[in-house]
Every structure is written in C-alpha cells, then in structure tokens.
Amino acid sequence: MKSSAFAWVAAALRAFHVVLFLFLATPVMAQLEKPPMRLVVPTPAGGPLDLVGRVFATALARESGEPVIVENRPGANGLIGTEAVARSRPDGRTILLAAEFVASNVVMSKADVAPLRDLAPVIELMRVDLVVVVRKSLGVREPSDLQRAAAQQPGGLNCAAPPGGLGLACEQLKLALGPGSVVTVPYAGVAPAMNALLGGQVDIAVVPYDAVAPQLETGLVVAVASAGPEPAGPPFEKLPRMMQFWPNFTVVGFMGVMVPAGTPPATIAGLNRAFNNVLKDPQVRDALRGRGRTLKVGGSPGEFGASIAERIDYYRRLADAIGLKPQ
Fold first, then answer.
1. 125 in Cβ contact with 57 (< 8 Å)
2. Which of 94, 97, 192, 291 has the most CB atoms around it within 10 Å of its CB?
3. Residue 119 phi/psi, 5° resolution?
4. Co-location of 291 and 152 in the same domain
5. Could you give the angle at which helices 101-108 and 301-322 cross, rounded to 10 degrees?
6. Residues sharing a CB contact under 8 Å with residue 95, sequence separation 6 or more, in sequence order
7. Closest CA to 143 of 186, 185, 176
C-alpha cells in the first residue's frame, strides 16, 4: 500500500516537473522560433544606401535589444529587394530600406509592385541633398551657363543617368534646355556615373552629396547647383537651386522604412517608435553628419506615405511630358 502511494506521489511530481518545464520553456522556445529581424538594402554592399543602412541596423539593434541582419538584395533598380520584402510575411520582421526608387519605378518599370499597395510606410528617415555637377573643362560655373554649353557641344550635353530618379534628372534637363540639348547616358549606379564624369566621358550628372564631395578635391568636377526644392547643406548651402532657373526642375532624394502590406498597425506603430528613437541617437547623428543627410524626427507612417504619393504623382507628370514608357 505504501509502495503504491509512493509511486503515485512520484508520478505526480514527475507530471508537475513536466508542466513546470513547459511553462518555463515556452517563452524561450517562442524566442528561438521568432525569425531574426532583417533590414533589406536593395543595393550592393559598400554603396551609399548600404553604409547608411548599416548605421541604422546597428542603432535599431541597440534600441530593440536583438540582432538586426542587413541583407543586400541588389538589382533591377531596387526592384529585387523591394519585391522580396513585399512578398515576405507581414510580421514586422522584414524591413525595406526604401529610397527614391520606390517612387520612380512606378513610371519606369512594368513590374507589378505598387509601393503603396504592396508595402506599408513606417517612417521617413531622412532627405538627401542632391547636387548637379559638371566636368571642369566644360566651363560651366552656374546653371545659366548650361544653355550655352549645350549649344556649343556637338550633339548636346552627355548626362550620366544612374537608375531611378537620378536618371530622370537627365530627362528633366532635356525639358529645361530644349530639344537636342541633352543626351541621356545610362549607368548602373552612382559610382560608375561619377567615374565617367571624372574621366570626361560625360559632361554632367545629378548625384548625392556624399558621392561628389570627395571628388571635388580632384579639381576635375565642379558643383553648380542643388537639385532639390530646399537649399543644400554645408558645404553646398550657397549653391543656387536648379528650380530658381527652371521652376519645374526638382529631384528629391529620400530614405525611409517600409514593411509588407498587411503588417498589423500596432506592429507598424512599434517600429515607428523604435526608428524615431533611433533618429535621436547621438551615435546615428554623428555617423551621418556631413554626408548631406537631413534627418527627420517625429515622422508618422502617414506622412511618409504622403511623401511617396507626391513623388509618384510628380514622376507620372514628368513621364507624360517626355513620353516615357515603362520598360
């Protein structure tokens, strides 16, 4: 009888230990099953977007207390990385570091990816100063010189066109200077476009501040104007703006965060809070200071969505004006 009672107690204790183990292990198992957070950068490693992405990934890891993996998915003017995020599980674990290409691809590509249908905006992180640069031997020192230079160049100015909005800047220059004044020369990225400008293969380009700042020291290129609607930051704050000469000329560089459509609003709100805190991080601000980046703090998902919609509308009107057809 005593043996039976002892066996019953032993069995009860074993059952209790199993239940206790499961109770304690459940959070650990859930943590192990939760996929790592991924920040998808749709450009090659080492480029301007990638370098900025790694700054934000490090800061987000500090803010969230968990690792953040940077995953480079370059190709097709950002479409490969964009599609990868759009098709991911909408759980807030896969994040797109979005730039201007999410707006320009709407008019440049036939790919069935609509940024405000297949993706949900989280926050606009920054604006990027864009600068109009020319080869020094062209003899252009300000925007008003471009018309003369285009007339003197056989066939017009050769404009280096990286993918996306920077390439569309060449098309805007065509509209501003008139028929036969500009020839668009496509390049795979900003770096090869700058190399072509330094080598004299092209005459002009519109590029981010941090792509041209080191090249100015060579004396082979000259910054003549800022391309955005607002004055550029130091050391280009005294440059005239292209829109002061041609009111419809504007190229806006921006960078932000998007997640797959269908991500729960509470999850988006949590990411928005996290990135707003990251933008206040002194280490982030110090890392990006001097790179022509204007950080934004306190932005909402709706505000970023409105900015993207505004750029899409602008590019659609531009496409109509120049007869651009999606490829």
1. no
2. 97
3. -130, 155
4. no
5. 40
6. 37, 38, 39, 40, 85, 122, 257, 258, 259, 271
7. 176
- Answer whether residue 238 is part of any domain: no
Q: What is the CATH number of the domain that holds 50?
A: 3.40.190.150
Question: Quick one: 287 and 261 in the same domain?
Answer: yes
The candidate with the shortest Cα–Cα distance to 140, out of 204, 202, 211, is 204
| Domain total in the chain | 2
> H/E element holding 245?
none
- In a shared domain, residues 101 and 147: no
Q: Which domain holds residue 106?
A: 34-126+253-322
* The CA-based dihedral angle spanning residues 40, 44, 47, 52, taken in that order and rounded to the nearest 10 degrees: 10
pLDDT digits (tens, 9 = 90+) for 63-95: 999 999 999 998 888 889 999 999 999 999 999
Q: Has residue 24 been placed in a domain?
A: no
Question: Which residue's structure tokens are 């905006």?
Answer: 121
At 158-205, the pLDDT tens digits run 999 887 888 889 999 999 999 899 999 988 778 888 899 999 999 999
Nearest to 204 by CA among 171, 234, 237, 233: 171
- The model's pTM is 0.80
d(CA 304, CA 195): 33
84: left (phi over 0), alpha (psi -120 to 50) or beta: alpha
CATH of the domain at 192: 3.40.190.10
Phi, psi at 140, each rounded to 5°: -95, 130
* Domain-located, residue 12: no
pLDDT tens, position by position, 266-285: 999 999 999 999 999 988 88
